[in-house]
Specification:
Blueprint (H helix, E strand, L loop, with lengths): L8 H35 L11 H30 L20 H35 L4 H38 L2 H25 L2 H14 L19 H4 L16
Helix pairs in contact: 1-2, 1-3, 1-4, 2-3, 3-4, 4-5
Length: 263
């Protein structure tokens, strides 16, 4: 986030268009990922993913969309900016007040706000279709354990995309409200939300993948582990046999202590 008011007109205009391009790529990649999730759920009805031989061409298509579409929209925003400023692209009146975040009304609304709204609608469409596909593919599984595991895993992935789309969509909505109303409250909320957006997305991914649960489970198991000569562990629970003996190749650990009784 820019923390100063740029006095250089060229730098201010470059920041305005660069930030708009970066924000557009975020929404385009989110749309590409939701579409890929829907395609994967539709074509793979098994819990174990199947390697797609067309993964290289598919990735190239997604990259062309996610990196190329923002360039087209950015070019349209430049044209609208030139038209609104009567050909004076380096006129930064109105940009310096917002630290070069926003461009003029037409360049922002038609070059960013409306495309983002269309992308969010596309995200909602693919998320809804993914939920329907999950319901049908899960019902096709015969084994109850496999059915429950597939439902849990795919719902986790679906909920992750829902949370990310809601988060970045809310931040973009605050920016649109700040642009339309000129309210300082919306402007401050947009800056704070945009600054915390990356951390919030990282937390969503971490909690969704249950990374913290894995660590706490490992620490709990270590806490309950006790030496072999103890009869019981903490809280009266018996200690689980250590797997170090079976994994060791040392000959000293293969001896009987104490020696077994003669038969």
């Amino acid at each position: 986030m820019v923390l100063y008011v740029s006095q250089d007109r060229e730098l201010c205009v470059a920041l305005g268009f660069s930030l708009q391009y970066i924000r557009l790529t975020v929404f385009c990649w989110l749309t590409a990922m939701t579409h890929d999730m829907y395609t994967t759920f539709r074509e793979n009805v098994n819990l174990v993913p199947v390697a797609d031989p067309r993964i290289g061409s598919v990735f190239c298509k997604y990259s062309l969309f996610a990196w190329g579409s923002p360039l087209v929209l950015l070019a349209a925003a430049v044209v609208l900016q030139l038209r609104e400023r009567a050909g004076h692209l380096l006129d930064t009146s109105g940009l310096s007040a917002t630290n070069c975040w926003f461009l003029d009304h037409d360049a922002y609304m038609y070059g960013f706000a409306l495309p983002v709204l269309c992308l969010l609608l596309a995200d909602a469409f693919y998320l809804a279709k993914s939920a329907v596909v999950i319901r049908y593919t899960v019902s096709m599984q015969v084994d109850k354990r496999v059915r429950d595991k597939m439902r849990r895993k795919r719902r986790l992935q679906l909920c992750l995309f829902v949370k990310v789309a809601a988060l970045i969509g809310s931040v973009a909505a605050l920016g649109a409200l700040a642009k339309l109303t000129g309210s300082n409250a919306f402007w401050v909320a947009f800056n704070v939300g945009h600054g915390l957006q990356g951390i919030a997305v990282a937390l969503c991914v971490t909690c969704n993948c249950q990374v913290l649960k894995i660590y706490t489970r490992t620490l709990r198991r270590r806490h309950r582990r006790c030496p072999a000569h103890y009869g019981a562990g903490l809280a009266g629970k018996p200690c689980k046999p250590s797997t170090d003996l079976s994994k060791s190749t040392s000959l000293q650990l293969l001896t009987w202590e104490p020696a077994p009784d003669a038969v």
